[in-house]
Amino acid sequence: MAKRRITKREMKEDKLVTGITRAYIYIQRHWQYFAVGAVAIIIAVIAVWGVSQANKRKAEDSYTLLGKALLDFKLGNFQASMDSLTYLTENFKGQKAAKLGYYYIGYLNFLTGANDVAIENFEKFLATGAGDDEMRLNAMEGIGVCLMEKGEAKEAAEKFVETMEKYPNSFKQAELLYYTAEAYKLSGDIEKAKEFYKKLIDGFGETDVGYDAKLAYQELITRGG
Predict the structure, then answer these.
(1) Cβ partners under 8 Å of residue 138, min gap 6
(2) Widest CA span of the chain, in angstroms?
(3) Taking the domain 14-150, which CATH number applies?
(4) For residue 209, which of 184, 189, 181 has the smallest C-alpha distance?
(5) CB-neighbour burial class of residue 190 (10 A; exposed 0-12, middle 13-18, buried 19+)
(6) What superfamily does domain 154-225 belong to in CATH?
(7) Of 86, 65, 64, 82, nearest in space to 73 by CA
(8) For residue 207, what is the DSSP state?
(9) pLDDT, tens only, 70-106
(10) pLDDT at position 27 over 50
């Protein structure tokens, strides 16, 4: 007998459960970046070798502060983590650690539902050119999700499409296709929604998200959408 699937309505009924689930999923997906802090402190010592003592010390201090912020996050001290990240980005401008700090500020605000602040900091991070492809992909996807939660579905869909075009071989392709279809559906563009559900079904039909896409696609067909 197939397992009963939890509906979106049921998930939304308990906001506390939803919040905890959301935080847990994102912590698991992004945890590798929260390990950056400890490694970055070591890397910083090598990276700044040969520069002036003042610049070297500033770079080391910035990575130490980033490491502290990420450790506080791991320990559940979210406000302390945010305080350190804010100080980092305001007082170590131009340092690589500070550029990464924008990502984590965006991430923490995403978790708390502060969508405007999350978008602002994800965009600041992307503008710096810092981070690897996966981090930058996560930031772009995060902006799209925040836009959806703000009710700006069309803009969210466009951001997801932009993300897929920039990272066509991403391991998140199925997830991004689903988000895109959902965003277009919310925006009222049913034909576009069906187009992206179909792409997801064709490419990832046997996955969990592919199964969800089949149900959503069939629902649109059934109701004549």
Answers:
(1) 29, 30, 33, 103
(2) 69
(3) 1.25.40
(4) 181
(5) middle
(6) Tetratricopeptide repeat domain (1.25.40.10)
(7) 82
(8) S
(9) 999 989 999 999 999 999 999 999 999 999 999 999 9
(10) no
